[in-house]
Structures are given as structure tokens and as C-alpha cells.
Amino acid sequence: MKLFKVTTLLSSIFLITQSASAGFEWVDTEGKFTDLKFDGKNVIRYMYEAMAPEDRERTYKPFHHVYDKDGKDFITKGAGGRYTHHRGIYYGFAKCGVQDSSGKSTTVDTWHCKRAYEQHVETLAQEAGDDKAWHKVKIEWRLDDGTPFANEYRTLAYTIADDGALVVDFMSSLESLQDEISIDGDPQHAGFQFRASNEVNEKTKKQTYYIRPGDGKDEPGKTKNWGGDKNMTNLLWKGQCVVVGGNRYTTVYLDHPDNPKPSFYSERDYGRFGSYFKTKVKKGKENSLNVKYRLNIKAGERTAEECAALSKEFLK
Predict the structure, then answer these.
(1) Per the domain annotation, does 16 fall within a domain?
(2) DSSP-derived secondary structure letter, 285
(3) 161 lies in a domain?
(4) Which of 133, 106, 136 is nearest to 120 (CA)?
């Protein structure tokens, strides 16, 4: 009888432990980053440390890292390496037309963070459930003197697909704090982009390949970019396959027709790809620049047919 009670008690403890680690969970390291776990394993890290002038390069923009399939190392790039301003899942524009603190028109850069930077202000909402998690953060786009010229409300939602892929829905609402700001750049230095680990640049870029609508799977090391290739515009989707830690990972970038158009696409063998557009944003929340994208990130490879199916699902 005593053995039965002990066994029952141990089973209950085991079930409680299992339940506590099941589903999504946010774990914050105050003032530095927040990890998102699924079934106890790391999947995402939001890097939000405040911009420190003495450590500007490392802290001048918030971004999201993606963990590998084991939840131990990142498959995305942080500060340093080739092009230090490339950071995981990130958003910014190399040419922002604004007024400085004296009212003079000038151009600043929230991509390389020259004469301006992006600053996490607060997490406005955050939830984690059995099958979905999301958070909404406020990010100020600031001149170097600290004056904000835009408020960005950035929401990311996360699910795990039936095939184990991490699905990241990225939504941004950018509100101008000035009468009008212009948003511009070029396909390599603006917009919503994904950058794989610097390991790709250092060791495996010859194994990188892209999958495109119409083209399908390209040869390893081959890239296409707007400008040289006029077909790289207004795409609904594009896939990137890289090798990190000895494993292949495929990221499918899904664009939405409601995003500003035309959009221009860029890709690199070292693991950066995405798109940009140009527009103007007038003052006031009612005039905010709203965009929505999805990333589907899976350990392994995908076919063009799978990528197209993911786009159809997103557009629903």
C-alpha cells in the first residue's frame, strides 16, 4: 500500500513537471533579452538591451534571434562578423528623410544605424499558450541626439507547425512623430530581412541555395537581386536553404500583397535575404505604415511546391 502511494505521488509529480514545461513560455533576463521556449526548449530570443553610446554597435537595434533545432545555439547572426548591422530577424531603412532637432531636413539610417538608431521602449503585451505565443513591443526610431521621429509597434506571433517548423508572423505599425517622414533605401540595405548565422559566411556559403517562384531550386552559391534581375520584384515568397552546425535549415519568406509595392528583393550566399519598398508616412496613428510578413523556418529542405503552399496558407 505504501509503495502504491509513493508510486502514485511520483507519477503525479512527473505529470505536473511535464505540464509546467509543455507549450510556450517566456523567460526574461531583465534589461537584456527575453527567451521564448516551447516544451522547455529555446526557440526565439528577443534582444532588446538599451542603446549604450559606449557600446553603440552592439546595442543600436533590437532584433530577434532564432535557435537551432536543439534549442542550444543560434542559426541567426548577432553583432560582429560580416556586416555587423545584420541581425537575425530585423527591420529598418538606410534612408529615412526626417527633420533634426533644429527643424532642418536630413537623411538618417536605421539600417546601419548611422545618425540614428532603434530603441526598445517597453513590452506592451505578451502571452504564451499551449500552441501559440506572441508579444507586442514599442520601439522608438531616434536621431542620435535621442529625439524620436517615429514610434514602431512591432508584434511577433509564434506557432509550431505539424512538420515541426517554427512559424513567425511579423507585423509592424510605424507611426511618424513628424509632419512627414520618407522611408527608402535599396534591396540590400532596407526593409524586412533575415540573416543566417555568420558561420554560413565563414564556412558553408557555397552550400547555400535559394528557391524562387517560377525558377524553383537554384544551384548552390547562385543568387539573384533586383537591379540585375528585374524579376526580383513583388514576389509572394522566396526560400533560403543554408547549413549551420552541420544541419540544413530552410527559411521561407512570405510577403503579403497588402504591404507597400513595388517591393524589391535581394539575396546573398552568406545568408541574408529579404525585400524593401519605399514610401512616405504622414504624422498620426491613422497614417501609420503597416506591414505583415511570415517566416517559416524548418530544419531540413523544402521544395518549391511546399513553399508555394505555405504562401497560399499565409494569404488565407
Answers:
(1) no
(2) G
(3) yes
(4) 136
Q: Please report, for residues 7, 191, 203, 251, 288, the alpha-carbon distance to residue 206 in angstroms, rounded to integers and kept in the order given.
A: 55, 25, 8, 17, 41
Cα–Cα distance between 195 and 88 in angstroms, integer?
Answer: 5
Q: Residue 251: give the domain boundaries.
A: 22-315
Identify the three-state secondary structure at position 101. coil
| Residue 18 C-beta-side C-alpha neighbours within 13 Å | 6
Instruction: Please check whether residue 245 lies inside any domain of the structure.
Output: yes
Measured CA to CA, the distance from residue 275 to residue 235 in angstroms comes to 9
Our count of domains for the chain comes to 1
**Which residue in the block uniquely carries the three cell numbers 526574461?**
28
CB atoms < 10 A from the CB of 274, how many? Answer: 25
Q: Which residue has the cell 500583397?
A: 257
Q: Does some domain include residue 6?
A: no
pLDDT tens-digit profile of 79-105? 999 999 999 999 999 999 999 999 999
In sequence order, what are the beta bridge partners of 170? 156, 293
pLDDT digits (tens, 9 = 90+) for 145-167: 999 999 999 999 999 999 999 99
First-last CA distance in the chain: 57
- Residue 290 clears pLDDT 90, i.e. is over it: yes
C-alpha cell, 137:
513591443
